[in-house]
Amino acid sequence: MIGVLSCSKLDLRDIYGAHFEALAPELDLRLPHEIDRPEDVTFMVTFVPAADAFTPYPNIRAVYSIGAGVDAIMSCPSLPPTVAVHRVEDPDQARQMAGFAAFHVLWHHRNMGQYLANQKINNWQRQLTGLSPRAQRIGVLGFGHMGRAVAKALTALGYPVASYSRSAPQPSENGVTHYSAGRFDDFLAQSDILINVLPLTDQTRGILGTENLAKLPKGAALIHLGRGGQVDEVALIDALDRGHLSGASLDVFDVEPLPSDHPLWTHPKVFVTPHVASICEPQTTVLSIRRTQLERTPLTA
Fold first, then answer.
1. pTM, 2 dp
2. In which band, very low, low, confident or very high, does the pLDDT at 11 lie, cut at 50, 70 and 90?
């Protein structure tokens, strides 16, 4: 089984090469310049493929994302329509996302940014009301593998949690109020802290712009863990500057890495992290790819 490691953003051999050799010796993975017979390649491992990444390989039947996201793969113009696209769905990765989201909910709810500022000036000022989780309504935008884990963690902490997806989830999640198509405005209006974990699609691109940010309650906070391209960053800064939003935690951006001169770096109400909310361990990724590929193409005697 010959596959190709092809990514425009990451050195996949440096990150995963040793793990494939140790854990998946059945998979013969090569870099593009090491492929002498492109017609022998039957699968690709990637995350952000170049526009022409699939063009040289007429017999590719499967492509594996090294993470949970597949939007860059699905939008690749050279992706053949018959190729099966696989993502990693790892319970540990969902737990990472849930913990990361819970940290930022507490950051905004308990006003931790202000305490850090106060520490710098030796200011002993305390917030004595509104500390109960019941005081903050959480909205989880997107209710797939990651969204469910986030909602479960926050309901366990006592927060009232609502979720939104286009259709009603099956099964439902205990303690979570669900909003579906036709009730997006109602969902936004009750979200004191909005957590976005949507995938990037034509429908979700730009979903959090001027109009929808204005539908959040005054003083709401945004935790953006989905994909760059979903939040209008200019509109977000405007909402923060006007005081309509009290703060934002941003892990994903339109351009990554975030340019060094971008105003989000220095905005006093913004917490920036470099796309680290949830990262699957290399060993888990390799074993997931191995398992799926062997199921697709069983070894023969």
1. 0.91
2. very high
Q: Which domain holds residue 214?
A: 91-272
- DSSP calls for 191-257: -SEEEE-PPP-TTTTT-BSHHHHTTSPTTEEEEE-S-TTSB-HHHHHHHHHTTSEEEEEES--SSSS
Does 301 map to a domain? Answer: no
pLDDT tens per residue across span 243-286 = 999 999 999 999 999 999 999 999 999 999 999 999 989 999 99
Please tell me whether residues 53 and 127 are part of one structural domain: no
Task: Compute the distance between CA of residue 226 and CA of residue 66 in angstroms, rounded to an integer.
Answer: 16
Which DSSP category does 41 fall into?
Answer: E
Domain membership flag for residue 40:
yes
User: How confident is the model at residue 301, as a pLDDT?
Assistant: 39
| Amino acid identity, position 25 | P
pLDDT digits (tens, 9 = 90+) for 34-86: 999 999 999 999 999 999 999 999 999 999 999 888 989 999 999 999 999 99
Do 108 and 177 sit in the same domain of this protein?
A: yes
Q: Which of 181, 164, 182 is nearest to 173 (CA)?
A: 164
Q: What angle do CA 141, 280, 59 make, to 5 degrees?
A: 100
Which residue's entry shows tokens 């109400």? 269
- Domain-embedded: residue 147: yes
Q: Are residues 121 and 208 in the same domain?
A: yes
Specify whether 50 is located in the same domain as 158.
Answer: no
Residues 183 and 222 in one domain: yes
Residue pLDDT, tens place only, 101-113 = 999 999 999 999 9
Catalytic residue positions, numbered:
227, 275
Phi–psi pair at 85, nearest 5 degrees = -105, 125
Residue 240 lies in a domain: yes
